[in-house]
Design goal:
With about 160 residues, this protein is mainly beta. It has three helices and ten strands; from the N terminus they run E-E-E-H-E-E-E-H-H-E-E-E-E.
């Protein structure tokens, strides 16, 4: 699927954002594709541009805060708490619900979720591409209104 994204091609250089066409792969196992109704570049995204959050790879696609509607379910999502048409909100990092940090109520420090700051989805691949290359996504994770379950999404 093709859409528009805000990218930083050279993180930490104060080069600013470039709004351009991106391509999003279909959802993989345990993922959903979300059509965003609203998304924003927040202060965390700005820290990537200024270098206050040092990342040595790019491009980075910003806008991890937002809300939208699930458009497509990946494999292994059928029969879960997510369904096409569900309204969801997005959070910065995923939480597995099982690691030590998640079980002590600190899901914002999830051990699995921290891995996405390395520029890849939890399975080690890219879901979003710009100018023909894999693009790192500011992590985006869906949370349904019906449940506290979460899953990753490339959109």
């Amino acid at each position: 699927m093709k859409t528009i994204g805000a990218l930083i091609w050279e993180p930490g250089t104060r080069s600013g954002w470039s709004v351009e066409e991106i391509e999003i792969d279909p959802p993989k196992s345990r993922e959903v594709l979300i059509k965003l109704a609203a998304s924003g570049i927040c202060h965390s995204d700005d820290h990537v541009d200024t270098g206050d959050i040092p990342l040595d790879w790019g491009p980075i696609i910003g806008g991890h805060e937002g809300a939208g509607v699930i458009q497509e379910l990946g494999p292994d999502v059928e029969g879960t708490d997510f369904a096409v048409g569900d309204h969801v909100v997005l959070s910065f990092l995923p939480s597995c619900g099982h690691c030590r940090m998640c079980t002590v109520g600190k899901s914002n420090m999830c051990e699995m979720g921290a891995g996405v700051l390395g520029g890849f989805a939890p399975d080690g691949t890219h879901r979003v591409h710009a100018r023909g290359q894999g693009s790192a996504r500011s992590p985006t994770w869906a949370r349904s209104r019906r449940t506290s379950s979460s899953t990753s999404t490339p959109a």
